Amino acid sequence: MKIQILGTGCSKCKTLVSNTERAVKELGLNPDIEKVTGIEEILKFQILMMPGLVIDGQVKAAGRVPSIDEIKHLLVSNSVQQINPPLKGALMSESCCCSKSGGPEVVPLENIKTNQAEVPEITTNLSWRDKLGFLGVRWGISRMHYSLQPGLYRIGKPDKDAPVLVTANFKMTVDLLRKELGGMSAWILVLNTYGINVWCAAGKGTFGTNEVVQQIENADLKSVVAHREIILPQLGAPGVAAHEVRKRSGFRIIYGPVYARDIPAFLANGKQATPEMRRVRFRLRDRIVLIPMELIPALKWLPVIVGLILIMRFVDGSGINIEMFGDLLSYLGAIVMGTIAFQILLPWIPGRSFVWKGWLLGIIWSLSLIVWLRPNLWVAVSNLLVLPVIAAYLAFNFTGATTFTSLSGVQKEIRLAAPVMIASAGLGIILRMAFRLWI
Is 156 within 8 Å of 182 (Cβ atoms)? Predict the structure, then answer.
């Protein structure tokens, strides 16, 4: 077994290394552990955020730090897959409320019950708890722990000819799917995307070919249905090689509509999607709904920003006074530009690059501050170098929530923009702290 830790040495990267080493030790394993720190090498794994955990060439986690128990679960699962074929009902027999193998925390669906075939049933009605959880996740509460146990589920009383709908195990995604299937009978095959939605998981590789094949085998789907078709959401297509799935599992992939609300019509139309069903929309209301998801994590950096402002003011001799609120307003404004303003104005900001769009908003904000607050030249130049970088970085983070860019486009932005952003911000901070030496 070979384990690779993808990261450039950040605190999360070090924590992932520590958790992995502890998990390996507790399991008594002796795998090869490699730390991959080069950006070019990391990009080959097609992850958008670091750190990343790779086991035997497969990305198991990206953009977060799995717990020790979750890593142990991943290592054991990988070992079992290599030694033994998947057992029928292995996932079905576990509780939907928790993972007996110590995996990631999962949230149960309301009113789950088990029939004689040991396939859990999920209802199509959302309870008040579902709706409350939905709202909480929108505001970033327990976002990375809002997942459902992977495996096969049923809606209604499906038979061997019932359709098989494939989705991610982000509970909000499952909820959006099941609430549109009232009065229907269908099989729901939930992939282990580690609590990530379909679009993001496809980009990260967790909603991918290997996982689709693995869950088909785990569910022994060939004995469940008489046909050999599975319906995947259209937005999952970037992560799945349909021909490879058919070759390895015998199941043909049919790509369903973009939105779950169109699934009943799609099935009634002989599993044929109309051009309207294929159209991806990202209207103003869709973008506004996502603002808290971008704004709340950005505001968590507020203590760091305050600390940076204090350091700069003490070094340049400004000290703590009423003018400090002007500095704080400057940086808060950059956050607002990179989150709220950017998401609202996204289609109308010139250019294709998200970094460029965010940088433009940051420049507009910096120039506005010059007119409004009339800072001295050094502070003004520092703001022009630092604030657009903050807005650009936050805007770039929004790529994972949209279909405006591709994975290759995002990787290109990282390679081109990251050095420039780091240099600009560093120079701006240095100028702000050093200007006293020149006057």
Answer: no
Q: Is residue 79 assigned to a domain?
A: no
User: Which CATH number do you get for residue 214?
Assistant: 3.40.50.11600
Count structural domains, the chain.
3
Q: Which residues pair with 121 in a beta bridge?
A: 113, 154
Cα dihedral across residues 317, 322, 323, 327: positive or negative? positive
pLDDT tens per residue across span 254-291? 999 999 999 999 999 999 999 999 988 888 888 888 88
The reply to whether 34 and 125 lie within a common domain is no
Among residues 41, 71, 101, the one where a domain terminates is 71
- Report the SS3 class of residue 2: strand
Output the CA angle 89-25-146, nearest 5 degrees. Answer: 45
- CA-nearest of 114, 95, 109, 117 to 225 is 117
Expressed as residue numbers, the domain containing 303 is: 284-438
Per the annotation, the verdict on 96 as an active-site residue is no
260 and 144, same structural domain?
A: yes
From 10, 96, 97, 200, active-site residue: 10
97 tagged catalytic: no
Round to whole Å and give the CA distance between 409 and 356: 13
